[in-house]
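Give me structure tokens for this 115-residue protein.
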Amino acid sequence: MESKLLKINLKLGSREKLDVLICYMRENIQFPMSEMEQKGYYWDSVFFESSPEYESIYIVIKSEDFSKIMLDESTLVYTPFREVYEKFRLECWANEPYTDMEPIACFNSSMQFSI
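Here you go.
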């Protein structure tokens, strides 16, 4: 199992919308799980960081093999999660790319996902 840490800078005031996204995912886990399964990676954990100047989320993602994840989403079978996620992304992500932090080690060798 491989792990990566992504840092996504958000627009100030995004916390409530992040909570809505996470709440949706918890209540409708079958939809994000379906899309993640198709893509070949899973969100393991989400962390929030803020200060008066910025807000960021950190997402730990896991995959059996990141070299095999879906890069071209043209074949992705969308679920109702896509609309909720895209709304969050468009309203909250800062106008800059996310940061893919360099992985050093992953000590959890099994792919487990729970809420």
